[in-house]
Structure formats: structure tokens, C-alpha cells
Amino acid sequence: MTVSVQPCTSAKEQRGALSAIWHYFGRSAPRDDQLESLARRMPAARMHGAWEDGRAVGGAGSFPFELTVPGGRLRAAGVSVVGVLPTHRRRGVLTAMMRAQLDACRTHGEPVAYLWASEDMIYSRFGYGMASLAGEIELSRERSAYYAPFAPFGATRLVPLAEAEPFVAPVWERVAAQTPGMFARTPAWWQTRTLVDPDWRRQGGGELQCVVLEADGGPVAYALYRINLAFDRGVSTSTVNVVEALGDTPRAVRAIWRYLLDVDLVARVRAFLLPVDHPLLLLVAEPRRLHFSVRDGLWVRLVDVGAALSARTYAASGSVVVDVADPFCPWNAGRWRIGDSGAGRTSAAPDLRCDVTALGSVYLGGFTWAQMARALRVEELRSGTIARADALFNAERAPWCPEIF
Prior knowledge:
It is a single chain. The protein has twelve helices and 21 strands. It has helices spanning 11-24, 32-39, 93-108, 165-176, 187-194, 199-202, 250-261, 280-283, 305-311, 356-363, 369-374, 385-393; strands at 4-7, 47-52, 55-69, 72-84, 112-116, 129-130, 133-140, 155-158, 209-215, 218-228, 231-232, 235-236, 239-247, 268-274, 293-296, 298-302, 319-325, 334-339, 342-345, 352-355, 378-380. The strands form four sheets. Strands 1-2-3-4-5-16-6 form a seven-stranded mixed sheet. A seven-stranded mixed sheet has the order 8-9-10-13-14-7-15, sandwiched between helices. A five-stranded mixed sheet has the order 19-18-17-20-21. The chain is globular and about 65 Å long. It is of the alpha+beta class and 405 residues long.
């Protein structure tokens, strides 16, 4: 039978489309409360369903985000809940959903789509490039001393989740506005995603805690964490699992992490989804004790090359001409002059040649053109252009998103 891909028009259709990914969660379909929560962040029309004989066999959704890029923000699609039932694998269903979703992004005026990849081999086929790295630490509390003592800064207090939004949302916004890869959280996002603590998210761990650091009359940092209690023959082996920890200044970051590293009755601190340039690497006295490891982070797809590249700023004057290949979204293919005045089509001879995945990798500043060239992902057609391109695309901080959406 023929599979048809269409946007959902009702909560019932959205539930059906979500059932494909829910199958891999070990469930047949989202519960009413899960569907209601998701619908506040992802309207039904932003969910594409793949239908065969009136039954959903796949689904792909996207959140409407305001994504931070170097020097600004732009509308973007945060792609999520993508799945095809195992009964319909290898039949082109995912390709059809990606086609419909990227076409919809273009129609909605969203020049960028980005995601966390469940499998790192999937999305490059559709023009996504690995755009950031995410770090993980596991640190023994007894080896968590900083390289130097510091004077106390601010005051911490625990805040109930139901009361936390006014304290944590301003801190998030100040950090997110300056960090490529982060997005503007709406009140609905805080209330239905970040500051809720259902049993399934605990995975046997403790309740979600919120600590706020206040200084100079207001909140400057916060952390969301769980304590997973455990003992071995009377000795605590408990863990602080850090879900999210942000500060709007270096002093605030240093202080909120000192709080987390000093929680009593725990043996170690674990954290995931950290930026690769996290200050902890230079704050602690024994950085190798962090056991810092790295995995792929965000994957970025430029849906509209001209609009996406014009929405960010550049760190140097001048321009480069890039010949872009994009077989999945052919409207992007061709030569683009990229520089401090934005991006536009040109007939000039190209300086560089690459496919659109390479543009996704360098877009937020997570990878350099030189790195792409060493991996044979870009071809330098005019000597010295790689260095000029890196000067243009240079970003002050590594791209980072503290949560998998």
C-alpha cells in the first residue's frame, strides 16, 4: 500500500503519529497527559504523520524555536519525536517525512532546522551536519577542589519547582541570548518540560531539586539536580546528577558549581551535555579527575542558506565565495558570497567547495573550516581561503544546548 505523509490536523492524528517513536520507548502511544503537555510546545500541525490505509506508521515533529546564532537569533525548527515503526523500515518513509518537514520549514520561514540525533548515521543523508560537541563528567567529590580558594559569592537557596520559573527563567535568557545553540524558552516550556518531575524522568533517582544563587539583588545562577541515594556497607556511594547548571557571569558559574560539588553525603557528581569549553576544566585543581568525555551534540541543517548565513554576524571583514552542493534541497545549490555584509548568490569564481552538511557544521562555530578541510569535507580552490573563512566564522564561545529536546 502507498504511504502518505501529511501534517496532523487534530490531537487524535498527533497521537497516532507519535505512536511510532513511542513504540521505541516501550509504549504503544502517549498518555493523555503526555500528549497535552507536548501539544503546548508542539501544535498538532507541526507534527507530520506517515499514513498507510488510515493507520500511522511514522511521525516527525518540530518545535518552533528562536535559535541563538553568533550575533543574533532566528526562527528555527527544533526537530524531535521522529520515528518509523519497525514494520515499515527501509521503505522510504523517513525520507518522505524529512522531505515534507524541510519543505514545511521553508514555508514557515525557518531558515534552520536542528536536532539531537538518536543515531549519528541518519541525518547527514538529509543535509544535517554535526555542529557541536557535548561533554560529560563524573567527579569524585573528594577530588573536586578548585585550583585556588575564592571569597564567598552570593547566597544559595532551594526553591520548589512550582515557584522556580521567575528565578531561573531570567538567568537562562541572559545565558541563552549569548550562546549559539541555545533557544528562547517559553513559559509553556518551563511549565511542561523543564520544571516538571514525572516518575519516568527520574529513572529510579531522587526528586528534581532547584537551587538558586542570588547576588546583587537578584538571581544570577541556578542548578537543577537529583541526588541518587546509595550506600555500600554504611558508606555513602550517592551521586549528584546535574541536569542543568547555568550562571550569567564567570563568578556565578564558579559559585553554583561549588555548591554542587560540596553537597554532603554524596560520593560523586555527574553531569551531561556540558559545553566543550566549560570553565570547570580550568577551575578544578585536578582536571583529569573530571573524566571529561565527549560525544556529538547538535546537528544543524541550513534550510535556506542565504537567510541562515545572513542572520548571523561575522568576526572579520571581507568575504569568501562558497560553491554549495545540496541534492536534498536543491534551491540551496550554487555559489554564495558570505561575509560581513551577509550572504547572497554570486557568479564569481568560488574560493571553497563543500556540501551543505559542512555549512551546518561551521554555522554555529562548533567546527572550523580548517577542521573540515583536514577531514576532506571542504575543498580549498584558492590558497589562503580556509584561513579567511575561519576568521569570518570565528565565534567567542562553543555552541551549546543544555538539553535534548
